[in-house]
Amino acid sequence: MQLNRPFATVTPTLDGDVLAVLASADVPFTIGQVRRILTHASGEGIRKVLNRLTSQGVVQHDEVGRTHTYRLNTEHLAAEPIMALSRLNSTFLSRLEQHLDRWGSTLRYAAVFGSAATGRMRLDSDIDLFLVRAAGSGDDVDDVWEQRLTELARLVTAWTGNDGRIVEYTEGEFHAAAAAGEPLFDDVSKQGLTVAGTRAWFNAQLRSARRS
């Protein structure tokens, strides 16, 4: 799936993209405003979709003078599933946070990065996860960690249909790579979506390693 196009999971048509726009805010939109967001669509195509959705009662159409506005009818029976679909990205991140919270202090930091974080996913995109593991381990801890990584990758695929690509570092490896100027860390710092730990911790560790 494409987290940035949640309605594409159920419909490949323009209808889904238009519904995603209307569900993004409880405000009226003009056709021009929708088109500025959906740059790949024509104004006429958007108008036809809005008229079709209006006839189904899912969209409310108002006319003030020569201005036509459209908004999602939040009282419609279909509004709840439409809103749920529109929130797939945040639902995915919440599930990740809840799952990783059970890992306890072994996990110092985790973030989603790459196209899933920047909104540029293709249908076949991987979902990239960055993890920093706390210092100190033994054979038993290592085995549990590997099992958790395997299960995490499985869950990401089960939830989304996309392959989960996990990039992991121990704290020591993270500091060494940061000191060497690993460019991936800049991407995580600037665009990553934190799902475990805090961005403040990550950035502080990154600055400390690079100063040293």
From TrEMBL:
<dbReference type="InterPro" id="IPR002934">
    <property type="entry name" value="Polymerase_NTP_transf_dom"/>
</dbReference>
<protein>
    <submittedName>
        <fullName>Uncharacterized protein</fullName>
    </submittedName>
</protein>
<dbReference type="Pfam" id="PF01909">
    <property type="entry name" value="NTP_transf_2"/>
</dbReference>
<dbReference type="InterPro" id="IPR043519">
    <property type="entry name" value="NT_sf"/>
</dbReference>
<dbReference type="InterPro" id="IPR036388">
    <property type="entry name" value="WH-like_DNA-bd_sf"/>
</dbReference>
<dbReference type="InterPro" id="IPR036390">
    <property type="entry name" value="WH_DNA-bd_sf"/>
</dbReference>
<dbReference type="GO" id="GO:0016779">
    <property type="term" value="F:nucleotidyltransferase activity"/>
</dbReference>
